[in-house]
Amino acid sequence: MSIHVHVRVGVEWINDFHPTTCHQNDLSYCDDQVVGFYNHMGSHGHVQVFNWGDDNAWETDFRHPDFGGDSLNWSDDVHFCMVNDHGGNSANIVSFYFSNAHTNCSVPSTKMRLGKKNLKWIAALGCDAVLNTDAAHILAVWGGPMQGVHIVCGYIGTAADSSWTAGLGGDFADDICGGDTIAGSWVSRAYSFWTGDDSIAIAAGVTRDDAINRRESENLDWRDLNVAATNWLAWKYRT
For the chain, which has fewer Cβ within 10 Å, the N-terminal or C-terminal residue? Predict the structure, then answer.
């Protein structure tokens, strides 16, 4: 099966953190994963919009304007965004961490409004998209930030910074550009027995059946089948 729509793609990644400003341990493979995704999506004819790394990756690109951010011109101005950094999850709030304190070193999910403009799918490759698979936890973390986005892809708990998974982004892009479902491909590709990475994909829907259908069947051709309201979430995972 082939994909018939063109998808706008943007990625952000951070390997090098500044000890005097936004101190975190340096990473090594964030660029390999997301730039691989970006390049493979482009090779399949999709539209490459931005590839921001290290000091050029800013938390304001994910913060909604209601909270002083610029997400509608960056992460929410593409259909598929992938971000790879140090993630974190505390009190049911996910944070993305950046190396350049353009305004802040991190952005919490409480200040994200994913899908308010164009965003349909986001993959967060840092740690702790969720901490477990309990329904109450997943709903508390993502029920608020998912406001039009179709699917959030991420990890349960920590994600390894490893050469073993450096090719994840390219493999994932090849799958979905070939017609594979987004949730199914992510859960399969992002799981790693060798590095201990446990994968999860969370789909939104107006109804329970809508959310389940998107979890099981949605591919890139569903780009314009909008989620009018995030009334339900349905997820799949591999541990």
Answer: N
Residue tagged 């446990």 (tokens): 198
Which of 184, 103, 93 has the alpha carbon at shortest distance from 142?
A: 93
Q: Tell me what pLDDT residue 96 has.
A: 95
**CA dist., res. 229 & res. 206, Å (int):** 5
pTM over 0.90: yes
Q: What is the CATH number of the domain that holds 188?
A: 3.40.50
How many structural domains compose the chain? 1
Query: Which band of pLDDT confidence, cut at 50, 70 and 90, is reported for residue 1?
Result: low
- Can you give the length of the chain in residues? 239
Cα separation, 184 vs 88, whole angstroms = 24
Over residues 85-108, mean pLDDT: 90
Residue 36 pLDDT exceeds 80: yes
